[in-house]
Every structure is written in C-alpha cells, then in structure tokens.
Amino acid sequence: MKNHIQTMADHWLRPLICLLIVMSTQVHGSHLIDITLLKSAVSKGAVCLDGSPPAYYFQKGSGDGANNWLVYLEGGGWCASHDGCEQRTRTIVGSSSLRKGATFFGQIMSSDQTINPDFYNWNIVSVVYCDGSSYMGDVEGAILSGGSAGGLGANLHCDGFGALLPSASRVKCISDSGFFIHAVRDIQTPYFFLESAFDDHQTLREVANSKSTGIFIHSCYRHGHFYDKESWANSPVLGDKTIVKAIGDWYFERSSVQEIDTQNELPQNCTNHA
C-alpha cells in the first residue's frame, strides 16, 4: 500500500513540477540568464565587499538589436561605516558568491516583445551591485540605466559612459528612482528621469530645460520600476503614455517626453491601475 501511494505521488508530482517550470518561464517571458564572474578583475582590486569577484548577467542581442546595448546597474543602498559594510558581506549586495547562478530578465530587460517592444532584442547587461558605493567596441545605440543606488551610479557615470562610445549613434541614460539634483546638473548626455512624485520631484524642474531630457513623474507610491513586475505591467499613464511607451518614444526620438502628474497631491495606490 505504501509503495502504491508513493507511486501515485510520483505520478502526479513530476508532471506538476514540469507544469510549474513551464508556467514560470511563460510568466517571466524569458529564459534563465547565467551569471558571469570576472575573476581576472580580482588581481586589479575590483572586488565586492567580501573580496569576491565582480559579476554580471548578460543576454545576447539579436536581429536589428544586435549592435545595441542596455546596461543596468542594480540598486541596493549604501554602507557608510566599517560595521555597516562588513554586515553587507553576508548578503547579496556585498558578495557575488551569494548570488544566484542564473536569473530571469523581466520588464525593460525582457526578451518578450509583448512586454518590452523597443529593447527586447538588445544586448542586455545587468551589473551585480556588491560594493556598497554606487559603482565608484562597435556600438550603434546604448543605454546606461540604474535603479535607486544604481540610479545614482548612472547619474555619476553617464557622461563617462558616453565618452567610452564615441562612435555610437545614440547614447542615453535612464535613472529609475535615483534622482540627485547635485549629480545631474552638469550632465551633457541625454537623460531620462523615471520617478514617483514622492521621491522629491520638485527639483526636476530645474533640469527640464532641454527636449533631450526625458521626464516621467507619476503619483504612485513606488520606488523602483525596472525590477518590479507590478510597476512595469500596471504602469500609470501620463500624456497617453505608459512607462514603456514614454521611454521608447524618448530614446528613439519619436517625441519629446516631459510628463509630470500635477493632478494628484497625495500618493496613489496604483497596484491595480491598468
């Protein structure tokens, strides 16, 4: 009887596991992306807080996106003391050795054209954030982007990133919930600011002096969009544009995008906003 129950359990469990794997793949709209460890960088002093090598996840582009790049700098806050940094060495924001060997790319990094219509076939790099300090070829188009602490990293390195790609026809930067007024005033490279109005958006008016500057400031109570499926799929709409449409129109210069929600003075719950 016991063997019969075990056989029946195996009979149902294995198909269920396979089904869950298929469903997971369909939900993410992408395949697993393996981590790459830069072991050669250790000898040069480029290491995570625990001494492990820097790392990134890379998805190769294809078709008309094969020569375009989107580089995403992960966020994760900062450490400002020896004890604080030491504590981070036991977490994924202080050690690449604690990272998953593979991950899914979603939202602006998804290879699913229905989710990410403008950048789905680009070369995508997600740089592992593990130093606690905002990250102190033949390319046609490139984007340097980052969220939160990574957004500050994108601010600080935007012009330097552009200088590394002098032959690229279009180089731009995106800050996802990582706006710092003193870090962006002198940026020359076209920049897109994606923020909640409750991440101190008022200061953005000081930098909205060029059509090359993209702005999408909504009133949803959110911090971060690119790694949050809910924020990406249920995007607020400003000027008839969702977040994905606004970024695509700005990058490809289909139209200027400087949208700020001035209708709502209080934060909105946009969880179920379609």
From TrEMBL:
Its main location: secreted. Its EC number is 3.1.1.-. GO terms for cellular component: plant-type cell wall. GO terms for biological process: cell wall organization. Pfam families: PAE. It comes from the Eukaryota. Keywords: Cell wall, Cell wall biogenesis/degradation, Hydrolase, Secreted, Signal. Transmembrane segments: none annotated. Coiled coil: none annotated. It is found in: Secreted, Cell wall. InterPro entries: PAE/NOTUM (IPR004963). Residues 1-29 form the signal peptide. GO terms for molecular function: pectin acetylesterase activity. It is an enzyme of class 3 (hydrolase). PANTHER family: NOTUM-RELATED, PECTIN ACETYLESTERASE. Belongs to the pectinacetylesterase family. Hydrolyzes acetyl esters in homogalacturonan regions of pectin. In type I primary cell wall, galacturonic acid residues of pectin can be acetylated at the O-2 and O-3 positions. Decreasing the degree of acetylation of pectin gels in vitro alters their physical properties. This is Pectin acetylesterase. It comes from Sesamum angustifolium. The lineage of its organism: Eukaryota, Viridiplantae, Streptophyta, Embryophyta, Tracheophyta.
